[in-house]
Write a structure and sequence with these properties.
CATH architecture: 3-Layer(aba) Sandwich
Helix content: 25-40%
Low-confidence stretches: none
Bound molecules: coenzyme A
Largest sheet: 4 strands, antiparallel
Structural class: alpha+beta
Oligomer: single chain
Strand content: 25-35%
Strand order of the largest sheet: 1-2-3-4
Mean pLDDT: 91
Number of helices: 5
């Protein structure tokens, strides 16, 4: 088990930097491994969390659409590095850089995680702006047909 001191030490040794072109397939592999949305994985939008030894410990991206809508996503932290604040580091990096509102789609099991950062779930009759609205309608259809549990959240 990691102690609080060990976690802080690891977090201090983590740095964030833009993704490189040659990291495209690493991103795709890890996104698929976690069962996340494998579409729109343009490496240019990604930020990587790198350990002191150069290992990639996590990453995330922000998608900005022509309509001005913003979607945070593809947040993945390596299993052995979870619980050390790396997910929070990546998320707050993007939240400081981009204006609100920021939307995201996540599995129901992650709703509580994003609430910690101020996100709230969209109500039944609430929709995100285009083009996210189409994605959310599709997701809700999936919920009904396949009983996949997905939530849409916003930070205003
Ligand atoms: C979700 C995820 C990104 C969190 O990354 P992380 O680096 O472990 O998160 P942090 O270290 O910033 O936060 C850890 C804290 O959040 C809590 N937490 C982690 N996952 C949680 C969840 N699903 N629900 C509620 N709390 C959660 C931890 O218990 C810990 O709490 P503590 O600070 O009180 O000890 C990581 O577990 C992951 O990569 N999961 C698989 C991919 C995934 O589901 N990504 C989200 C896509 S929407």
């Amino acid at each position: 088990m990691k102690t609080a001191d060990q976690s802080v030490e690891r977090r201090l040794a983590v740095s964030l930097r833009p993704a490189r072109r040659d990291e495209h397939w690493l991103i795709v592999r890890r996104v698929l491994r976690e069962g996340l949305d494998p579409t729109k994985l343009n490496w240019r939008r990604f930020v990587m969390a790198e350990g002191a030894d150069g290992a990639i410990l996590g990453f995330a991206q922000m998608k900005e659409f022509a309509t001005g809508a913003r979607e945070f996503g593809s947040l993945v932290v390596e299993p052995e590095s979870r619980g050390e604040g790396i997910g929070g580091l990546l998320l707050t990096h993007f939240l400081e850089k981009f204006p609100r509102p920021v939307y995201l789609f996540c599995g129901l099991h992650n709703v509580r995680y994003y609430r910690r950062f101020g996100f709230r779930r969209l109500a039944e009759d609430e929709f995100p702006p285009a083009p996210l609205q189409r994605k959310w309608r599709m997701a809700r259809l999936m919920v009904r047909i396949f009983r996949v549990k997905v939530a849409a959240m916003v930070l205003e």
